[in-house]
Amino acid sequence: MTRLLVVARSESFSQLWPQLAAGARAEARVVAEPVEAAAAGDALALVLSVAGVEEEGEGAIAALLAAGAPSPLVVGAREDHRLAVALVRAGAADYFALPGDLEALRAELADRARRVEAREAGGRLAASERQHFDFSRIIGRSPQLRAALDRAGRIIPRDRATILVTGETGTGKELLAQAIHYNGPRAAQPFVELNCAAVPSGLLETEIFGHERGAFTDARTAKPGLFEAADGGTLFLDEIGDLPLTLQGKILKALEEKQVRRVGAVRGREVDVRIIAATHVDLAQAVRKGEFREDLFYRLSVIPIHLPALRERGDDVVLVAEHFVSTLAEQYGMDAPALTPEVRRALLTHSWPGNVRELRNGIERALLLGDGGLDPADLFPSGAAQGDGQGAGGGAIPFPATLAEIERSAAFAMMERMEGNKSAAAEALGISRSRLYRLLEGTDEDVSE
After folding, report:
1. Nearest 10 degrees: Cα torsion 61, 62, 64, 66
2. Mean of pLDDT values over 150-171
3. For 228-270, what is each residue's pLDDT tens digit?
4. How far is the C-alpha of 236 from the C-alpha of 134, rounded, in Å?
5. CA-CA 20 to 30 A from 297: which of 53, 111, 163, 233?
6. What is the distance between the alpha carbons of residues 164 and 155, in angstroms, rounded to a whole number?
7. Where is 259: in which H helix or E strand?
8. Distances (CA, A) of 296 to 152, 168, 213, 245, 248
9. What phi, psi does 166 have (nearest 5°)?
10. In whole angstroms, what is the distance from residue 390 CA to residue 361 CA?
11. Within 13 A of 34's CA, how many CA atoms are on the CB side?
12. Could you report the per-residue pLDDT of 319-337, keeping only the tens digit for each?
């Protein structure tokens, strides 16, 4: 069982320790000397109980730290802001004046108990999570995707290097970050994620760095930030391109110094965190526009990994679609229908602006609306099939689009017109049969013949 270790310099609260320990699912152990507290590294918390004299508290803290004990939570009976500040400056993690701060102390111990339980659960779940987020779940065999996964695989053991994952929205950046974490040496430690675009800018600093009790109105208890929550593991900062400039410097400082300072704190706390950042924004361009710090950009992009858009991955769209058909049909208790040639053409010629996320939603919709099969008209929202690039339904050629996408769509449209006769389609297009095959397979890199 987890221990609550108490160094008692006062008998004032002796009846309280067993109650507090029980509330945090721990057992209380009271010691008298600092050297006995040196083994408190694996304890829920180290509590120093003092009579309230400033010099006594500072001396006791110094003795504990000199003996190798962690920063203690100091408990006393004197409500004095100057005393609290002096003790924190001396090395205390926090000061609680009882009985007024009793509930705040309970909340702090309960929060620490939750973190201990999370770490223990992380060890038990690491193996299953590692299997769940294995690279094999990132489906595709296109050269662009395999190159990205190969780079990710090579950096997994180097768990101190920062990684910047780029790619359009819906390409799987979060899934890649999870796979890197759960396949690496930090797998048993926390994987903590934050979408920088989803939290109001006024709350981001305390969300990332935490705050001390009394740092602002309603801050009745101290709160650790996400850097501290991810200590030993990985912090995934999604949509880092939306991080306000005012916070970018503080993130850089935390990365450089491996320390974070809570809002309202006078001292920093050491953290050991791997940072994986992700964005759909062109950060180099944002740097040129003055919207993103250049030094932070270079610090984050030690290992850049770019995930290609689905439209750039050739036949991967069919492989991913087959995977979604199988898993979603099982989820809904349905038979998995086969992909007809018409559906395959619709998949291959659509431009997929929403990437894998859009594909999953389209397959789910078509599966639920279909009568035992998939209708290309159900793959896309109403009206999206016109002039969008999925020429299977009406043979439309995508525009605007890259030249490669236009040529590939033309090849499918001509195949449809020639009722699958490849020789006739190649002749009508004025290209060789081998070039036609390359276009249909998405492996053609030539734009001229």
Report:
1. 160
2. 92
3. 999 999 999 999 999 999 899 999 999 999 999 999 888 889 9
4. 17
5. 233
6. 12
7. strand 259-260
8. 21, 21, 30, 10, 7
9. -115, 160
10. 16
11. 16
12. 999 999 999 999 999 999 9
pLDDT at 420 over 80: no
Instruction: Give me the mean pLDDT over the 426-443 stretch.
Output: 78
- Distance CA(153)–CA(137), nearest Å, equals 14
What pTM, to 2 d.p., does this model score? 0.61
- Residue 41 predicted with pLDDT over 80: no
The answer to whether the peptide bond before residue 400 is cis (omega within 30 degrees of 0) is yes
**Residue 437 phi/psi, 5° resolution?**
-60, -45
- Tokens 């769209």 belong to 317
| Res. 283 pLDDT band, cuts 50 70 90 | very high
Other CB atoms within 10 A of residue 330 CB = 11
Residue pair 224/232 in contact (Cβ under 8 Å)? The answer is no
What's the angle, vertex CA 23, arms to CA 21 and CA 29, rounded to 5? Answer: 5
449 pLDDT band (50/70/90 cuts)?
very low
Considering all CA atoms of the chain, what is the largest pairwise distance in Å, rounded to the nearest integer?
Answer: 97
Cα angle, residue 108 at apex, residues 105 and 109 outer, rounded to 5°: 90
CA atoms of 47 and 29, how far apart (whole Å): 10
Write down the number of H helices and E strands in the chain: 18, 14
Burial of 42 (0-12, 13-18, 19+ CB in 10 A): exposed
Of 82, 71, 55, 66, the C-alpha closest to 33 is 66
401, 389 in Cβ contact below 8 A? Answer: yes
| Alpha carbon 325 to its chain's center | 27
Per the model's pLDDT, the better-predicted residue between 128 and 199 turns out to be 199
Written as six digits, the tokens of 340 are: 């007809």
Sign of CA dihedral 50, 55, 58, 64: negative
- Token output for 290: 């003055």
Using alpha carbons only, give the angle 179, 292, 294 rounded to the nearest 5 degrees.
90
424 CA to centre of own chain: 51
Radius of gyration of the chain (CA): 29
Residue 90 Cα to chain centre, angstroms: 35
